[in-house]
Design brief:
Layout: H1 2-12, H2 17-24, H3 28-38
Helix pairs in contact: 1-3, 2-3
């Protein structure tokens, strides 16, 4: 869950899935999975 909160903050600040993936050193698919869990 902490990772999802981090992703939520980045999304709220306008970061794209790709930017989040690069910043957190994960794949875009992982970012999308976290976003799905948030929603």
């Amino acid at each position: 869950m902490p990772r999802e909160i981090e992703i939520l903050h980045l999304l709220a600040n306008g970061a794209t899935n790709r930017e989040i993936a690069l910043k957190l050193v994960v794949s875009e698919g992982t970012v999308k999975n976290h976003i799905s869990n948030i929603l």
